[in-house]
């Protein structure tokens, strides 16, 4: 499926309710309890609120759950992404996207090496909020942290192990968005492994028009050619980086759609339960 044929979330009526039927951020509720509540037809904060009020429970526990449900409703209305990001497991941040798409930024970087202590960031593209902007070293890269500060959900491919560590070294004062969806690990939960371009091809998503055949090592060579005086090399590098970035959007939409279908299955039918997030950090970039 090409990006042009992707219909997004508008064709399914309950996408915006995904967050409202999430209970993992509430005290005392884990994946098993959440699934059990869904199986009993309790699929909203208000339904859970009514359920807890009707049961005989210790006053302190009921009061805490009641307060957190009210805070959840208020946080969603005020678009407080940080409230949910700080309470949900990092592996479940994908649930935030349908409720806060305009607060989401897709990001990819190009570098001259695999370690932020040996290579430099050359080009970064940020795609979100209705705009796509590329930043180039020795030109406007210093403007990147301020630009990213308007977003509250970061989407990358292997960014937890590569892009974010590079940017944290390059910009020590930079604070990443509250929520981070790393598509490498989200898609792996759905059975899709390998590099970004391989997964794009498997799913038939994204466009590589004009940058076909370019890979990571070519990005390093293009930067070197630009530094040697080739303006055309920089243009090609930026277009390659923008393709890597913009293509993350349909991949996330696919991932959220499929995770929603699997997570909301009855527990006995579920193939992929909510699980652990990315492994501990290491400065080794995955394939692609």
Provide a quick synopsis of the model:
40% of the residues lie in helices and 10% in strands. It is of the alpha/beta class and 288 residues long.
SSE topology sketch:
Layout (H helix, E strand, L loop, with lengths): L30 H9 L5 H10 L4 H19 L3 H5 L18 E8 L9 E8 L2 E6 L7 H5 L4 E4 L6 H8 L8 E4 H7 L6 H8 L12 H12 L3 H16 L1 H16 L25
Parallel strand pairs: 1-4, 4-5
Antiparallel strand pairs: 1-2, 2-3
Helix pairs in contact: 2-3, 9-10
Question: In words, what does this structure look like?
Answer:
With about 290 residues, the chain is of the alpha/beta class. It has 2 domains: about 5-80, no CATH class; about 100-270, Ribonuclease H-like superfamily/Ribonuclease H (Nucleotidyltransferase, domain 5, 2-Layer Sandwich), CATH 3.30.420. The chain contains 11 helices and 5 strands, in the order ααααβββαβαβααααα. A 5-stranded mixed beta sheet has the order 3-2-1-4-5.
